[in-house]
User: Fold this.
Amino acid sequence: MKWKLKDILMVAIVGVLFSFLFLGANYIGTALIAVLTPFGLNMLAYQIIYGVWFMAATFATYVIQKRGVGLVAEMLAAIIEMMMGGMFGVSTLVSGFFQGLGCELGFAAFRYKRFDWSSMILSSIICAVLTFFIPEYFFYGYSEYPVSILAVMLVLRVISSIIFTGIVSKLIGDGLAKAGVLRGYALGMKQDLPEEVE
Assistant:
């Protein structure tokens, strides 16, 4: 579980690349707000794409397969996003911490021994639920919404997280591993194993 130099470099690359994705998602969320506001559904806008903000954590953990990777990658991406002028300012760091923590809890449930669909999906669900009830509930005034609206928001966030954080992140990792890009990392090495051993 000890980190090597290549692990640090990969986390840095993931943090930088996903920070741009996070920043872009901010503007997509703003556009969705504009579309949904006339229908009185503006509070659902960000929930539709919320899973994007958890991707750095699960992707990095899936590739490197060591504890702490998700938290560090997510925090780094959050710091860079904030420094590039992300619209949520310092609160981005708090959100990033809980996003990374949610990822870690998902893999910790399997004692960091399973890096597959089960651990990816569980991590995505924990990320969604944890961030909904701890930072965002207090930061963004969720307590003002009726329970029915909160339920819809949470369901949308969980679905978004499963799609982006669990499924898309895993598919990207698998694709890169099969292409030979991740040789030297745990995920890439698994691709090189004979099928019966894997």
In short: The helical segments are 5-36, 45-49, 55-64, 69-83, 91-108, 117-139, 147-178, 186-192. The chain has one domain: 5-192. The chain is about 70% helix and 0% strand. Residues 5-192 form one domain.
